[in-house]
Amino acid sequence: MFSRNVDLQPHNTLAITARAEWFVAITDERQLPDVLAAARQQQLALTVIGGGSNIVLRGDVPGLVVHIANKGFSVVGEDEQTVCVTVAAGEVWDDWVRQSLQLGYYGLENLSLIPGTVGASPVQNIGAYGVEIGELIEQVQGIDAVSGEPITLAAADCAFAYRDSVFKHGLAGKIIITAVTFRLFRKPRTNLVYPALQEVLSPTDVEIDPHRIREAVCNLRRAKLPDPAVIPNAGSFFKNPVISLVQAEQLQSRHPDMPAYPVDATCVKVPAAWLIDQAGWKGRVKGPVAVHHSQALVLTNPGRGSGNELLALAQEIADNVKDCYGICLEMEPVIIPFQLD
Ligand SMILES: Cc1cc2nc3c(=O)[nH]c(=O)nc-3n(C[C@H](O)[C@H](O)[C@H](O)COP(=O)(O)OP(=O)(O)OC[C@H]3O[C@@H](n4cnc5c(N)ncnc54)[C@H](O)[C@@H]3O)c2cc1C
């Protein structure tokens, strides 16, 4: 049922070489109860992956790696304004975004071209260009990784926050997401709050077509971000830190050009890319790993280094930013395996 000693390099966009002790691809969620029972019987720890675009493999993965690759979607409800579609977790995210627009279901256009799978989209509440997926999720379906029982979570129970959800905390490693239900709009509800989008799409256009937004987002992303197929990377490596207004004012008295965006009455968000760039890291190379030459937030692996080499670079950057600005950077990708013996 499981393959042994499988190379995970094709399964992570950082192209890190590591091996799974055991590996199984799930193409139909009905496989899961038997897979979980067999894993339990053999006392194998489980690690779930989708497209591997938000993980750092810091070594071989003991136990069973479960690669979610089930496909398909169906309309499960509709009213005059919205349509609810349940999409299999293994669908490629951007394939689904493209298909949703072709079907005239709107809302996902700003999230075009994000790598990965539908099943991972709630895990870090993917976001881009002013939209977070938690706003459009109706519910998340999965299977309890221990009991094998089906679980359904309403969006309100997913604790969606900036690049965060219950699937990174209370339910981390405890649920295998098999499908996600989205509530999308029948009529375009365009979101142009993001300044870079406003620049390329004139807000004076009364009706901005979501297909044009998708095209603009794809063009912006292709211009800004390295393609993992060419330069291995995991997108943004750090979250944008949220600091107190008081700390921001103190920092801005020393660094007047430091950007800070309001979060609420007491906190602001500072772009991690600005901090890393100002600390002099943009374009720096450390052996096989590097900081991208035009996107300081993106760590790359052009020389096919190890996860530990990449994490050492990330730690050096985070320590340096802490020394310079007193701000702690938090990593965005998930480190696998969680603990090494
Ligand atoms: C070039 C590039 C650009 C990116 N841009 C963005 C961006 O703009 N915005 C953004 O939010 N992210 C971005 N990302 C990060 C990444 O694409 C997303 O986090 C994506 O949702 C990860 O999907 P995945 O299938 O590759 O997940 P993986 O990397 O395989 O897994 C990520 C985490 O989710 C868990 N997981 C995956 N599938 C399941 C499942 N079915 N059930 C339970 N847990 C699961 C894994 O255990 C792991 O903890 C970018 C990445 C790259 C490489």
UniProtKB/TrEMBL annotation:
Gene3D superfamilies noted in UniProt: 3.30.465.10, UDP-N-acetylenolpyruvoylglucosamine reductase, C-terminal domain, Uridine Diphospho-n-acetylenolpyruvylglucosamine Reductase, domain 2
Keyword Lipid biosynthesis attributed: no
EC number assigned by the record: 1.3.1.98
Domain FAD-binding PCMH-type: 15-187
One Gene Ontology CC term in the entry: cytosol
GO-annotated molecular function: FAD binding; UDP-N-acetylmuramate dehydrogenase activity
GO biological process, one term: cell wall organization
Active-site annotation: 163, 236 (proton donor), 332
Record flagged with keyword Cell division: yes
SUPFAM superfamilies registered for this protein in UniProt: FAD-binding/transporter-associated domain-like (SSF56176), Uridine diphospho-N-Acetylenolpyruvylglucosamine reductase, MurB, C-terminal domain (SSF56194)
Domain of life: Bacteria
Catalytic function, reaction form: UDP-N-acetyl-alpha-D-muramate + NADP(+) = UDP-N-acetyl-3-O-(1-carboxyvinyl)-alpha-D-glucosamine + NADPH + H(+)
Protein name: UDP-N-acetylenolpyruvoylglucosamine reductase
